[in-house]
Known about the structure:
globular, two-stranded antiparallel ribbon, disordered N terminus
Amino acid sequence: MTTPFSWFQFNPTTNDFTPSTLPDNTSDAASQPPPGSTVETVVANIYLYLTGVTSVLSMFGCVALVVIFAAFRELHTTGRRLLVCLSVADFLTAFGNLAGIVWYAWKGGMETYVARTLCQFHASLTIFSSISSFFWSTSVGIHLYVCICLRNAKMADKIFWPFVVVCWTPAAIIAIVSWSLDVLGHDPDAKGPSWCWIKPKVEVVSSLFWQYVTGKCWEMTCYFITAVIYALIKRRLHKKKVGRVTTEGAANDVRGAKRPNTSLIAETNRKLVFVPLIFVSLRIWGTIRFLIGAHFSSAYGVKFALAFIVPLQGIGDSAQGFANFLLFCCFTKRVRLLCLSTLPFKGRRVKPHSIAPGKLTPAEFPPPDTDPHHQSPSAANQTISANHRPDDSA
């Protein structure tokens, strides 16, 4: 069976992709590449490979984010809870795209019923997870706006559960309705590799309507909301010259646990600003490709533009989970220290008490000054601990 990966191979001598050499007993008809130019085939192969690699990396990153959040109570902030929910949606998106690659590459060897079921399953899964991911990315922006611009930490904590309902329920309803109305399928006339989404001919309304309803309408709306919120946040930060912003106003849970370190919350919030930017910068390429195919397919230079857009879409559609993992785990010092404190290696160990809630590491102590009322580091720690009592509602 011929797969989409078997027609061209890289020739190091000419530094280009050339047709693969087939056995001598292969017929001339079978040895010919499929219809389409060499550039289109190479772009298709690159798209498939990039999507597969980024899907696996994103699934790993999402699992790591959830595990680290569950393992360390110090990270249980509202912003991190939003990030975990976003990671779950990104994991499902990456898994759905990986299932789409499996279906696209080996659909010819599957039974008709199996291929059709797998097609509709991964289409509905990616519809649900993508819409949820759009909503959760926007929710992060709204959360930051309430914390930074409105300075209402209690409201930011209280709107988490409404976010849960709004972000998961509409996406589930849209995915179930689209599958039950039998509008999910594959477009055999699509240029380049494509997974299952909306069939080109549907009995209910039109295929373009369902393409907007099952993803693109929500995606472009989230782009607009994210851009407005980000502009307002940057304007507020620039106007007030805020160096540190704290989002947690009330105690973290009903059990009365100690509040996480204020510096950790501030660092998390500074990084949360990048979540909407990552979302837009990674997903915009799929939107551009959709708009070109739906409204500008006959425009001049479309084939040349798609040669660059398609590989970028292969990276962006599945990479948000891995990008968030790098930002909030690998590039966050406090999280790295928490993870290193659990490793059973010999030599210099990271002391857990140096990163416990309500404590400052030596590097975070304020510099001494000439003020006669200046407190020592130990007194500063006691003051911080007193200010972070479980029953403190300030």
